[in-house]
Amino acid sequence: MSSQIGYLAAHASAGxxxxxxxxxxxxxxxxxxxxxxxxxAGMAPPVCRICYSEEHEDGMGAFIRPTPxxxxxxxxxxxxxxxxxxxxxxxxxxxxxxxxVCHACDSPYTVDLVEEGERxxxxxxxxTGLVGRALAARLLSHPIFSLxxxxxxxxxxxKSLADVWIQKERALQDHYGAALWEAVPCPPGLREITVxxxxxxxxxxxxxxxxxxxxxxxxxxxxxxxxxxAVFSISPHARQVPRNPLIIPEANGDELLHAIATAAAEDxxxxxxxxxxxxxxxxxxxxxxxxxxxxxxxxxxxxxxxQALSGRGDAKYDPGLVVGNVYPLAGTVEKTxxxxxxxxxxxxxNIVRCAVSAHRVPVQTGHFVDVKCQTxxxxxxxxxxxxxxxxxxxxxxxxxxxxxxAPIVVVDEVGRPRPKQDGNYxxxxxxxxxxxxxxxxxxxxxxSIVINNVxxxxxxxxxxxxxxxxxHVRPLVARAAAKQRAAGGTMSEAMKEIRGFAEAKVTxxxxxxxxxDVLLKWAQAQDEPKTPSTLVAGLEESxxxxxxxxxxxxxxxxxxxxxPSWVKRQQL
Length: 572
Hints:
CATH architecture of the largest domain: 2-Layer Sandwich
Low-confidence stretches: 1-15, 27-36, 505-515, 526-572
Shape: globular
Strand order of the largest sheet: 7-8-6-9-12-11-10
Number of domains: 4
CATH superfamily of the largest domain: Dihydrodipicolinate Reductase, domain 2
Strand content: 5-15%
Radius of gyration: 26 Å
């Protein structure tokens, strides 16, 4: 039995974790006959907890030392090859937690052994800055992406990233004082990383880059884009350029597909648009506003922010402005309130009144935001609003590794949320809401939000956009293009077909769009090459089969999608 299990763990190329687990369970039953006690008593050698073979038995090689999780005793032994295959299969099956967290002790694995070539290297522009450093640490263990070249200024190129990290964190702590700023330790996995130049990144062959540079250096983003690299950016550079989508996946993720399709179908520019994330406050506030807007229809919003010092990155304020003080940002070079207002109005076109007032406060990490909304529909109670927020999960089922199970965490305790206590739900990717009130005589809903500005408000926003693109947008576009090529069509016509499908599913009011699962199921149903006539029939059939959503209520008024122009030509 042990040799069979060991072979499966080591060699299954398209294996299933469920099969592996069931076979391991059979092996465990055999061991219960007495081997457990022998191992505990030291009478038998330890065996791998995945394949139940001994060290070096059946060609399985050595155990990992030290144990890569918190398992102890007989559970502590695991072959390098077994855990590598386990994590690789989990990644292939998009079972992210199975590959990242030990199923026995529920602690994160300290190693990531996904086989070479299974993960996509990602470059970081502005990688020595506060946000870039944090992203580099995350990419050490991301299930899809790996850490590629880390770009810094000319002063840091060639230096150890760990040395730069330690120096910058120490400088921030010395500047603000240890009581306010706690230096973030550098992960051991970054000790061997050397800061790269732009030229080295260009030669590396990476296809994806996350940018966290200052807007004054935006020309570097443009150069990478021109070279055919997909850039996912949190920089204000070119954020308001219409061609560049401004994306919060829960709020307007479909705009990413629309922007890519539009660029491919209509633009003379063959490059992928810069995929932009908004200001850190907008990143978190938009998630909450989308939940309210979908239920009540938000028409007016007032936003007052109290933003942490880390929102400025490694740039340092005069301590007299922010230590034991509140610093209003209106009229300063940061233009924070201006950015936020423009972004909210772009993401939520039905909002007609929007006011923003931004302030910097003596907190290291975690923005506190006071939000007041006016709505089209009546809001009945606080409990109803909390239920709406807790139920909001529009991307559930898409398998995005960085998507939290609960995008919005609602706390009921008086005096919450607070940045220190409520900024790290689900690794900082969830936003926290509390202090909910309704119908105060002027506003229909008022509430407070805490956003982890470094994670959800910065690198996490770019990372989840990149996941959405890589796992869903890019494959969907590729499927459409392959169909068109098979039938003699063009890429432009493929993109128009995607847009036609999406637009045909919008209700006559124009504000409800197809969910991602509908778009993806449609694309998957079209995988096999078909003749033009069966392709059109299949398109209409799949709309009827998979189009389950609120827009179906007015299906009779929407009409059927336009047939692609290449099909019309074939029929003439």
